[in-house]
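Researcher: First entry.
Model:
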Amino acid sequence: MTTDDPAFNSADPLCQMSARELAEAYRRQSVSPVEVVRACLARAEEIDPVFNAFSFIDHARALDAAKASENRWANGAPLSEVDGIPATIKDIVWVKDWQVRYGSSVTSDAPATEDAPSVQLMRNAGVIFVGQTTTPEFGWKAVTDSKAFGITRNPRNKDKTAGGSSGGAAVAAALGAGVFHLGTDGGGSIRIPSAFCGLTGLKPTFTRVPAYPASAFGTVAHIGPMCRNAADAFAMLKSMSGRDRRDWYQGEAVLAPLKLAPVSLKGLRIGYWSTPPAGTLDPEIAAIVDRQLKSLEAEGAIVEPFELPGRNLLDMFHVHWFSGAAARLSPFGAADRARIDPGLVEVADTGAAFDARRLVGAQVERADFGARMDQALADHDFILSPAVTIPAFEAGLEVPSGSGLERWTEWASFSFPINLTQQPAGVLPCGMTHAALPVALQVIGARGADAHVLSFIAKLEETLDM
């Protein structure tokens, strides 16, 4: 989100402050967490009727938490540097005492009895949860609409999709209803809405952020930050990262500590991935990204073409994703399935028809692809690509009308391969189409190099000609 964006600048000035600015203001006691949270709650209520970003806004608990944070700062004893920072949580991650409906009317309305690990870590740091953001049912697609909660719309153009499945989080971030926004990403669900709405979003290395309960979509599912800049994304990532033994996938291995460090463009080895494994790259997006890459070369970066070292990636992902959809819908009978998004039912039925040989075959192919990507990132500092093959399109549709595409995966094909390989991948805005819709660049790094990716994104925020 650029600072000259009128939609963002219409928010209360307190809603426009970064995490670092808020921490300094809290320290000086020139601004109170209570004032900031009240402003963010008011902003959430203001934008929601138009853009549909929230499934729940928690005024009472947010203000209670803000008062406690205000007291800690007044006593010189904040829990962390992000104590009192307002945040939103996607309606797919447990928050104690909130109903977590996964964007669906067929799920239980009983409040969660515990925080998910990422939420607990943020709460332990003093982060304040102002509301719950919208998602398609069970986060199954890369746009945000559901029978239960309606259509979430793009803050740049309300006739366009905000992307998904973390679409509500992207809208809340873009319009100033919080500083930190927790999203999930199983095939692009952090990066796509961040790209469509002009934000910075990061899919971290798998297991960097602990998850519980385990996702039905398995080891392609990540949790990460969506923010207005790399510095906020880094501060949020630090607050939500750590070991939690409820997440069996984490094991006992220790990822490299998170620390931002300056990145020099001179001599940087960049692979440019420009051919998506499905769909076609929009020429206007290609031209904008090419222009930005030329500016990096002018600063001394070494940019060379890069091709993904894998075959049949769309089918490989479909086997993983559709099998997960089948597992996720398996508890629901015919009456409930009739109330679920028909597209989700279709992919679940497809996944249920896969036999064990096809699933295991896809898993073996994935392991080979992932190993080759690890090797590629030993030879490159980063791999860059467009974030999405197309700009934001009509809200309420899975694919653009008249495109001839069948499923969201066909236009999201710069995203899902990196869920298969589990590397960190972040996006940042890099230009605008003639129709005034954001275009974004994707930055992919080696597994464990989350801070290096965010450091590079911070450098690009300074360098790119917007």
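Researcher: Second entry.
Model:
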Amino acid sequence: MRENMKLGSLLKFAFLLIALFSDLAFSLTVYAPKGSMVYYNDKFVGVVQKDSISFNAEFPGTLKVVKPGFVPFEKTLTDDVTVTVELSLPSFLNLKVTPKNARVFVNGQLVEVDTFNGTARLQINSGVHEIKAEAPGYATKTLRVEINPYEEKDLEITLKRTVTLKLVSEKNIDNAILGGMLINLPSTIEVEPGKYKLYLPNIFLKSIQEIEVPFLDEYVYKVDSTQMFKLTIDGSPAGAYAWISGQIWKLPTTIVLPENSYDIRIFSQNYEDYETKVELRKDTKIFYNLKPKWEVSQRTVNNNYVIEYDGYVRDRVVVKPWFTTIKDNAGNIVWYGFSDGSLKNLPKTVPILISKDMICMVGTTIFKGPTILQVASGTNILVFDNRRAKSEERIQVEGPTVIDTEDRVLVNVYSKDVCEVYWDDEFIGNTPIYFFVTSAGKHKLTFVRNGLKVNEQIVDAKQGQLNEFRQSF
């Protein structure tokens, strides 16, 4: 009885092993058209008799299915699966190249070309393929070709000894020059390979651009068409400053900058800052009017004398350095010097104005001109002319005093708005101008603002006084 039980257990275990190994023996099933030949890891497995074939396989492995007249199927498998194979009819690519000795690569693989007639016929999978042709002395040509299933496509490739240069530009640019040719951009031209210089009108940031054209059938170059535009900044107070991209400009000004977005800060002593943003896509003007931190109103002192700040009587002035001239009711100058606009009484000092190459000694201190000194009334000073030997002269100062010579008189020039100043047609600076040295006599004084002449006059500069000239309206 026991022996029969043991025999029964052994038989059950044997059937279990047979079932287990039976599953492993048919771990890969391939469905394919009848007559297809199946290979696994380059070993022939068999021919599909009906619609499938099953066999034991090790993973990973490469499955290949072929049938005469169809494109082979190939796939790498990593696990036991059921694979359905749909074989497609082949596509063909008929090539013809010029010159006939050109080398042709399809997807990086060199193909055989009949050098007698420059042709090749290729069986090829459907899809997109990269074709490259090259020959000595010709530009290499690369193109992509799409082949449909079952399609037979003819492709003719003709290599050139020149390069098709495509100059791409975001803007239309006239009168550009490349290799001595006048062209308009964007443009497509035929050139020989090599280095070229592209010249653009000087309104562009990169008016000269170097291009190296490789020996290809077609080469695309993107032209830098960043343009330059004028930015004009003007307003009140004159002599303020603008901060733009890390640089500081004295105002008013007109500057040329590449088109871009700019953050601008305008500032001046004793005024609140003004900030703005500019999209510079064309010539642009900015006008500003800074708000003073502190203003004073002072037109007279001691109710008897009129005050001029930088040449003009002003209702209100910002607290800052001004060249201040005080006159009596008859228009005679009784005092001048620099003040902050807050004078309430006539200063007790006496001004001494010293011209260029003049030396003044007050006590043991030496001063060289051009400059202005303030001393007490009755002060004795020693004066020298640096251009002449033994020119020492002692002077007692009682009122406003100018120490100059006929060829070195002193001039101040003012305007309400900042102007460029030309003295006898030579630029001498922007207003206000203090202690300009010139010769006595008549001169032409010209005021220019924003490139336009706004005033011109003949003035008479005299020795022994401070000559103050203003823009006439």
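Model: Note on the second entry: Residues 228-289 form a domain with the Immunoglobulin-like fold (CATH 2.60.40.1120).
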